[in-house]
Design a protein that fits this description.
This protein is α/β, with parallel strands linked by helices. The chain contains 26 helices and 16 strands. The strands form four sheets. Strands 2-3-4-5-6 form a five-stranded antiparallel sheet. Strands 13-12-14-15-16 form a five-stranded mixed sheet, sandwiched between helices. The relative contact order is 0.06.
């Protein structure tokens, strides 16, 4: 069964947000709304309002806003779609392990699901004998093959022909990276590993050679409307269910590392698919697990990737642990060479980020040279600034003092000075974050606010706004317009479900919903907002030309710039 947007809305309409939230938080009715203590911040007086009419909740103190699903998601610390399943099961929808399908890309997901089954059938047929033997030699058993839906592409069967026979169009298959322009398969004679998005939908493949030589050992699906390599965390959809039982999540680089780890019982691992870990990935993992372990490849590139990942996690106040593998091996190779027990021992005894970073600093220094020793100690103390654990800080400073015979009070004094030095940077960051919002952004936000109040504004925005300068506002406006055109209405509670998996869009939408503006508007006001937005690119171009004119020395070019400026301002020449 697929969970569609319509089904999500049906479930939401069958439950009452007031009844659901009152099971978690006592609510008191005041007028049309209900009020209770907000569970999402340290609230001592009821600051959360629940609207029976709109079926949304809002905290007037911390700004938390959402519908019944997002409330349960945040309260229970579960995935949005797990919240849908939980409520769905309460009102008679037996969703079990149903897969999420967003209407916009439903057919693309269905095509990839069919392709995966086609490849699995190939592997399980007589054509798959050699590939199965190869996988067996690699210690990948039938249970693992089934769990990860491993399949096979062969020249004797055409996926393209099969999908065309089911009514699919060749252009669709080309756009999705499954077929070539001439109607042949992209993947031929390769063992096929399906790649899933965060919800478990198959969105791409990685094909590996097994009985031939080829300079490209692996070939991956090109980026498509449903496959963006940097957003994929391989095996996340499986691992997240185990993370309620496991305290840690292990981050690796490649999908084969994850598969190999699973064969020896290490199942709480995911992979970044060979790309650098992003802040978006890190933020998701922070919400998913209490402890994060980085187990990247043992080579120099893996070492550098580990350092970069630690710094990304630092930005969101997470201190991961680290596992380093000897002989430049990746986890897949390490298990095959040294066996499960030694690998598990590594995983169960990770080192702290500080230990790892200190070792990196040490490797680049001549520790018989006083200047290098000083640099090493200063770099190590600087790394401690991201640590909140006073015991770890104290032990590290003591270790440095003992190892290099430096007075411990000197090191503690140096550490305190470094801490003070950090404060101006944080204040600068706060100033930057709270800078005055530009006129065009105010106008853009106001328009989105009134799009929620009157559907006529949606039509007007679609016809008269060619481009929102702010990319986040632009993306949200496009989502709102698309949703309205698709479903004929734009209910706040339903739209929250639609964008629930995009943290940035949901945050911005909540800010728009909570804007302190009158419900009524007039046409002059709306037209003014549209004018401000449409004039913005012209003003930016004018500013650019004026700056160019100020620095231009050539008279002829100065005249050209002046003429362009006059043209922008509508002055006839």
């Amino acid at each position: 069964m697929n969970i569609t947007n319509e089904m999500i809305n049906e479930i939401r309409n069958k439950v009452d947000i007031v009844e659901v939230i009152s099971k978690y938080v006592p609510l008191t009715q005041r007028g049309k709304n209900y009020f209770g203590v907000c569970p999402f911040h340290d609230d001592h007086s009821p600051s959360m309002s629940v609207s029976k009419e709109k079926q949304i909740f809002t905290c007037f103190s911390c700004g938390a806003t959402g519908n019944v699903f997002t409330f349960i998601k945040d309260y229970e610390h579960i995935d949005f779609y797990d919240a849908v399943r939980l409520l769905g099961n309460q009102v008679g929808y037996n969703l079990g392990s149903a897969r999420i399908i967003k209407n916009k890309n439903a057919e693309a997901y269905e095509i990839y699901e069919a392709a995966c089954k086609f490849y699995q059938n190939n592997l399980n047929s007589a054509l798959g004998k050699n590939a199965l033997e190869y996988l067996t030699k690699r210690n990948i058993d039938k249970e693992t093959i089934k769990k990860f839906k491993i399949g096979l592409s062969v020249s004797k069967t055409s996926l393209t022909d099969y999908l065309l026979s089911t009514g699919k169009k060749l252009k669709q298959l080309i756009d999705l990276g499954l077929s070539n322009e001439n109607g042949t398969d992209v993947f031929v004679n390769r063992i096929m590993f399906p790649l899933n998005d965060l919800e478990g939908n198959i969105v791409a493949f990685s094909g590996r050679i097994y009985n031939t030589t080829d300079p490209s050992k692996y070939v991956n699906t090109k980026e498509t409307i449903i496959f963006k390599k940097g957003t994929i965390l391989y095996n996340y959809h499986n691992a997240k269910d185990l993370l309620k039982k496991n305290e840690s999540i292990i981050v690796m680089e490649g999908f084969m590392d994850v598969i190999r780890s699973n064969t020896v019982g290490v199942t709480n691992c995911i992979a970044t698919m060979g790309t650098a870990l992003t802040k978006q990935n890190a933020t998701l993992l922070k919400k998913t697990a209490n402890n994060i372990i980085l187990c990247f490849d043992g080579d120099k590139a893996g070492e550098e990737a580990t350092t970069k990942a630690i710094n990304i996690f630092k930005e969101i106040d997470v201190v991961p642990k680290v596992v380093r593998l000897e002989e430049e091996l990746d986890p897949d190779e390490y298990v095959l060479k040294y066996g499960a027990d030694k690998f598990k021992s590594k995983i169960n005894n990770p080192e702290s980020s500080i230990e790892f970073l200190m070792e990196q600093h040490k490797n680049s220094k001549n520790l018989t040279d006083i200047e290098d020793i000083t640099k090493y100690i200063n770099e190590s103390l600087n790394d401690l600034l991201s640590i909140d654990d006073p015991v770890l800080i104290d032990l590290t400073i003591n270790k440095l003092a003992t190892e290099y015979k430096v007075d411990i009070d000197v090191l503690k004094s140096k550490y305190e000075k470094l801490k003070k030095f950090q404060k101006p940077k944080k204040e600068e960051l706060i100033t930057k974050q709270t800078k005055r919002i530009s006129q065009q952004e105010v106008a853009s936000r106001n328009l989105l606010f009134y799009m929620l109040k009157d559907e006529k504004i949606i039509d007007k925005v679609e016809k008269e706004i060619s481009f929102f300068p702010n990319s986040e506002i632009r993306d949200l406006a496009n989502q709102m317009i698309y949703y309205y055109r698709k479903f004929g209405t734009l209910k706040i509670a339903d739209f929250i479900s639609y964008i629930a998996n995009s943290e940035s869009e949901l945050k911005l939408f909540n800010e728009i919903v909570n804007m302190n503006k009158p419900e009524r508007y007039n046409d002059i006001e709306i037209n003014d907002y549209i004018k401000v937005i449409n004039d913005y690119p012209i003003k930016m171009k004018e500013k650019e030309l004026q700056e160019k004119l100020k620095n231009e020395k050539d008279t002829k070019k100065q005249i050209e710039i002046v003429n362009e400026l006059m043209s922008l301002k509508g002055v006839k020449q």
